[in-house]
Every structure is written in structure tokens, then in C-alpha cells.
Amino acid sequence: MKAPLFTLLLSGAAAAANPPAVRVNQLGFAPAASKVAVVPAGAAKQFAVIDTASGKAVLRGALGKPSLWEPSGETVRIADFSALRAPGTYRLEVAGLAPSAGFAIQPAPYRSLNAAALKAYYFNRSGTALDARHAGIYARGAGHPDDKVLVHATAASIGRPAGTVIAAPKGWYDAGDYNKYMPSSGIATFTLLAALEHFPRYFQDQEVGIPESGNGIPDILDEALWNLAWMLAMQDPADGGVYHKLTNLTFDAMVMPAEAMAAPRYVTAKSTSAALNFAATMAVASRVMTPYEHKLPGLSARMLAAAEAAWRWARANPSATFKNPDGVLTGEYGDQQLDDEWAWAAAELFISTRQDDYYRAFKPAQGVTSLLEWDKLDALAWMSLAHHRASLPAIADRALIAKRSGEHADNLARAWKASGYRVAMRAPDFVWGSGAVALNQSMLLLQAYRIKPKDDYLQAAQSGLDYVLGRNPLGYSFVTGFGQRTPLHPHHRPSVGDQVAAPIPGFLAGGPNPMQQDKAECPPYPSKLPALAYLDHVCSYASNEVAINWNAPLVYVTAALDELSRQDGNGMDQQHPSLAALARQEQALQFDSFTSATALDIGMQLVKMARAAGKSVAIDITRNGNQLFYHGMEGTTRDHADWIRRKSNLVNRTGHSSFFVHTQVRSNGGDHDNIPTMDTRDFAAHGGSFPLSVRGAGHVGTITVSGLPGPEDHQLVVDALKAYLKGDPTL
Ligand code: G3I
Ligand code: 9MR
């Protein structure tokens, strides 16, 4: 970006002085989403939504009661236009005020935003040139190959004394600066992997135009692998310890990467937080990689081994908290309180290794802190446990896991409901990187929604994204290039140093931060109020920088909202087929006869389908108490056999598929993990066991799969039976 300094100063000030009166998500909404705008409280009591194509009002409504929003000190009213569902482009009007930005109602409204938010990682790659084919006008030369990095005196070991040269190439630049830090790398990479793990379908065919696109691995995983390669190189193979950061001694000037390579680069001391971040992230990566084993043989196992080695190092070095050594002035990420890092790493290792000791180390009795930031990570542990709860070993307290994610979401939803802006953000949430706080809140709400589909959770999650995309007192969409009024001058060296006026798109700017830690280097902020303390100025690293750990929840939340708003509902962890549809499956998928050979055919059919999908499951087919088929695919354990036992017990007791019972209990508001009449030691109301019914003879046994989330286990059985019976294709 090239612009004289006075233009930058003016634009920052002018933009802050004139926020739009009607504040709304400037991109838009899915047809069924909740849709809210905020207007300053004044004389008007009505609003109208105008179809921009026809110029006609398509919806009129009453504004809500005036309400004070503490973070901005404004009194505002809500315009709720959720009733409008017809796809189109619109604006919102209130008498006496300028109209809102235009926005769209359409299915999957965040697809291109999601792709750009992911592509932002490519633009921040270290050690590679970005060619015009992939980077367009933002093509640039390579920077920081990091193939010759010095071991700093604080990182010296017997095998690697100070000054030893090691290679730690690839990885992403952390933010607006060119250093690479383990704490932010871990959480950023994790969040991308979690998006893929939770919403695989969304990313399956997504191509965002990176060099690896089309290689048979989803782009989001290819991008994560770019950073994982760097992370792996940051582990000392001699002891499993992980260097805290790879850095210059001081920050580079605001120039392009290729112009910033004179300064020597170091790896600094190993730290406990780096080891735990690394362990958690590698444990997740190892399981997300499993389906791509054939593409990158051995990588998944290597990652898990690396995760366990880092964990062992942390156990042996529990108090190696990080402080910037003398002479090192770059980002510190110096967390002193590591309970949450321990919990997160233990939980991820438990999920990936299925070893009970990790669950014990997780200390499930601990509660959840309210904020999710780079130094407060325990919410991630609960999030991952919740996603995997259906297939966790028996030691895991599934009811507690569901409860915790609900408690956290209830707090956020309460704040959301009480807020004048109808957002969960409260004054203390406006810290350095406040936009990411809002999106992390949405991510946790969405996870809770997948466990218990309460509308409030979904609406509050939508509101977090609305906040970031324009429903805020500054009227900014804080993502570069997306929305009517977006940051033009982020503290991002490539965006500053290139010859292009517009900043690189798809980056979330940090957002309002009343601490103003950069005020000595900036023109005055327009306000000290939490939600107004923002400067769209390159000087403002405390309110207008970008960062890899802030973009990640943007990727997660846009994918999740797009997926969860699909009409078929398949984005849900618990898919929501109606009970009627599930009953119809049971009617249609019956046999005229069922022999031992039939069991073998169906069992093999299931194996084939699981293999094709890159999934590892255990399969059981039992008729009249006689096990006719059992196969545990590579990676399954005795634990899967126990799930099969408990799920098929449920089918034999009720005569219905275990997913039917699961859905029935939940649709009555009950907890499927606590059915009063069923001992959870012997009965599991999770999808995956299907009644084996022979016409004329009735229910004679079960066909059961275990290894995936319940709805997917169930679907696999149904698909295999459909394929075998060639029955009603509409099932
Ligand atoms: O720990 C206190 C907490 O007790 C207190 O309640 C809270 C009040 O705001 O402040 C907390 O400390 C803050 C800390 O982050 C933890 O959130 C500090 O005030 C705040 O200055 C600190 O900011 C961090 C900043 O680096 C400076 O260290 C940001 O979170 C962090 O995102 C940012 O990261 C930088 C890297 O260092 C360098 N690369 C760019 C990156 C993004 O700006
Ligand atoms: O550019 C740096 C940014 O990435 C960091 O988040 C920030 C805080 O550590 O520091 C920025 O660098 C500034 C430095 O701290 C003070 N002098 C000016 C630097 C760049 O404007």
C-alpha cells in the first residue's frame, strides 16, 4: 500500500467520525438465519427493509425498546428482520437516518469470505515466493527461508550449543510482523483443523487457489500442513522440547518480506507453553491426517509421536514459562498460568491416543474460563471432547462434557440477550484482538449448538459474526476487502510494503482495544470507550494489526454458519432427520431372508464403504445372539466393541435403531446420555446400531457400526443396507 502519511491520518480520523447510522452485517445472511440491525435510539419507531432491485419495501417492523450498550455508551434500538427469508439484496431504512449498507440474503452467504480468510494464510507464508497465478496483484518474492536459523543462547542444549545452525523453514508469519511464535501458531493451526474436523463436507471440494489445490487433500489441510511442517522443525529431536519462537532480535521495518532478510534469525528458549501448544495441535493433526494416510504415509503417526514427546518434555519441565531474553524485543506470548494449556494438551492426547492417563491428567473437575484467547485455552479442550464424546473411551464423563459446553454457551447467550447491540461482547472482552474474541465466542456457541440445538446459541453465534462484519458502533466490517466500510490501513507489513492501494483481502483486523498500547506511536484514538477505541491506521498494532490466531475463528465460524444453515441440516453433528424419516428407514430396510452369507456380504459392503471414505470403524452383525460378522478396522480398539455391545443392547431393548432412540429422547428435551430407565454401562443411545428385521419373522438381531460420531455411524449402516437391498433411494 502506498499513500502519503497525511492521507492515512485523515482517513483514519474521517472514517471514525462518520460511522453509518444503521449498523448491519454488510455481507448478509442465510435465508433462515436470525437477522438483526442496530440503530441509534431517536424519534423513529419503525424500520423498513427495501429490496434494492425493485426499490420497494418488502418488510416493515417496529424497532425494539431503547437500550444502553455500555461498551460504546450508546443508546440503541434493535431492528429484527429475521422474518425476511427471500433471497435478494436489500438495505434497511429508518426515517431520519441514512440507509444501511446493502446486504444479501442467500444460501451459504459466507463462502467467498471463508475462502479469503483461509487464503490469508497463504499470503502470510514464510519462505516462499507467491506467484501471480495464486497471489494475483499481491504476488511477491520469497522472504525468510529460515533454512539457517541460529540457536539462541537461551535455547542452547548439549547437542545444540548456542550458535548452532538449524533449519525451520515454512510456517506462517505470525501477524503484521515476520516472526513465528509457537503459542499463536498452535491455536491458529488447531482452529483450522477443528473447522475441517467438525465440518468436513464444507472443505472437501473447496479450492482457494493455493499451489497445492487439486492434490486430493482439502486446501484447508494443505494450508495447515504448511505451518505444521514448521512446527515439527521447532521440536528438538533430542528431548522433545519445543522452541518458543523463531524470531529476529527486533521487529523488521514496515517493508516487504524480501527486503527484510538482513537480520539474523534465532530460535529462543524451549518453553512449557510451546510444548503443550505443540502437543495439542499435533495430536489433533495426527487424527485429522488419518484419512490422507495414503497421500502422506507415516505423517500421522509421526505427528502423534511428536505430540507425546512434547508432552513428556513438558512433564519434565513444568515451569519453563517464557520471558523475552535480554536483547530480544519481539512478541513475547509470555503466559505464566498454564493450567489451561495442560488441560487442552491432555484432552487432545486423550482423544487421539485413547489412553485413560491423559483423561486423568486433563482434570475434568476444572471449570471453563470465560474468555478464549491465545493464553486461555481450556475451552478448546471441552470443545474437542464434546465433538468426540460419542466415541470416547468409557473413562470420559460424557454427561459432564455436554454440561460444560452448555454452561459456557449459556453464559454467552445470557450476555447476548441482555445486550443493547444483541451481541455477547461485554466491556472486558475488548482486549487486543477483540474481533477474534467475538468470533471465538461464536465458535464456542456453535459447538454447544451442535450438541444441544438451542436457537439462542445459534442466534448469539450469528451475532458474533454480525458484530465483526458491521453491526458495531464503528460500522466497520473488520475484514479487509469484505463489506462496505473496511480497514484500509492494517498494521501488516506486506500490505504496507507492496505497491497495491488496497490491503490484502480476507484479514481480520484486531479491532477496538481501549488499552491503546500503541498510543505513543499513533495519532489520538477517537475514544477511550472499549468498543470505540479503534484506529484504521498502519501505526496501530494494538487495534489494527492482523494475526493468524485471529483469522482462524473467522474461517471456523463462516464455515460453521454456512453448513448449519443448509436446508438438509447435514452440517449438524447430530443430523436432524425427523423421527418419521428414521421410522421409515426401519420399515424399508428389511430383509426377505437373512443368512450367514448375507451377513458376510453386508459386512464387507460396510468395510468397503468405510475404506472409500477413509474412515476406520468396527462392524458387528449379530442374529439371534449369534455373531455372524465382526471386523475391527485398523485403529479400532476393544472400546469400539463395547460401544457396539451397548448400542445393540439398546436396539434389542427398544426395537428401534439407536439413532431413532437418540433423536426421540432429544426431541423430548431429554439427555440421551442419562436415560433414567437405562444404565449407561449397558445401553448407549448413540447412532450406529440398526435393527436386523426379516419380513414375517420380525426383529432378529442388529447391524452395528462404531468409530464415527453417532449420526455418521448410523448413516453408514443405512447406506450399506440401501446399497445391498437396492431399496427406496429417497431414504
Ligand atoms: O494478562 C492481562 C490480564 O490480567 C488483564 O485482565 C488484561 C486486561 O486487558 O490484560 C492482560 O494482558 C494482556 C495480554 O495481551 C493478554 O491478553 C496485555 O494487556 C496485552 O498487552 C497483551 O497483548 C498481546 C500483545 O501481543 C502484546 O504482548 C496480545 O494479546 C497478542 O495478541 C499480541 O500478539 C502480537 C505478538 O506479540 C507479535 N506479533 C503480532 C501479534 C498480534 O498483535
Ligand atoms: O509490528 C509489531 C507488531 O507485530 C507487534 O504486535 C507490536 C507489539 O509487540 O509491535 C510492533 O512493532 C512496533 C514496536 O513494538 C514498537 N516500534 C514500532 C514497531 C512497528 O511499528
In order across it, which strands form the biggest sheet?
1-8-7-3-4
- Give the low-confidence spans: 1-17
Number of helices: 22
The radius of gyration is 27 Å
Task: State the helicity in percent bands.
Answer: 25-40%
Largest sheet: 5 strands, mixed
- What percent of residues are in strands? 5-15%
Report the CATH topology name of the domain at 1-107 and 408-566: Immunoglobulin-like
The N- and C-terminal alpha carbons lie at a distance of 55 Å
CATH class of the domain at 1-107 and 408-566: Mainly Beta
Ligands and ions found: ligand G3I, ligand 9MR
Taking all residues together, what is the mean pLDDT? 93
CATH architecture descriptor name of the domain at 1-107 and 408-566: Sandwich
Query: What's the count of strands?
Result: 17
Query: Looking at this structure, what is the CATH superfamily of the domain at 1-107 and 408-566?
Result: Immunoglobulins
What general form does the structure show? globular
Which structural class best describes the helix and strand composition? alpha+beta
Reconstruct the topology from this structure.
Blueprint: H1 5-17, E1 28-29, E2 36-40, E3 46-51, E4 57-62, E5 67-69, E6 74-80, E7 88-93, E8 103-105, H2 111-123, H3 132-135, E9 149-151, E10 165-166, E11 180-181, H4 182-198, H5 200-204, H6 219-233, E12 245-247, E13 266-267, H7 272-289, H8 299-316, H9 339-353, H10 356-362, H11 378-388, H12 398-418, H13 434-451, H14 455-468, H15 493-497, H16 541-544, H17 548-564, H18 579-588, H19 596-612, E14 618-623, E15 626-632, H20 638-654, H21 658-667, E16 689-694, E17 698-706, H22 710-725
Parallel strand pairs: 1-8, 9-13
Antiparallel strand pairs: 2-6, 3-4, 3-7, 5-6, 7-8, 9-10, 11-12, 12-13, 14-15, 14-17, 16-17
Helix pairs in contact: 2-17, 4-6, 4-7, 4-17, 7-8, 7-9, 8-9, 9-10, 9-11, 11-12, 11-13, 12-13, 12-14, 13-14, 13-17, 14-17, 19-22
The structure holds ligand G3I and ligand 9MR.
Residues 175-177, 251, 331, 521, 541, 545 line the site of ligand 9MR.
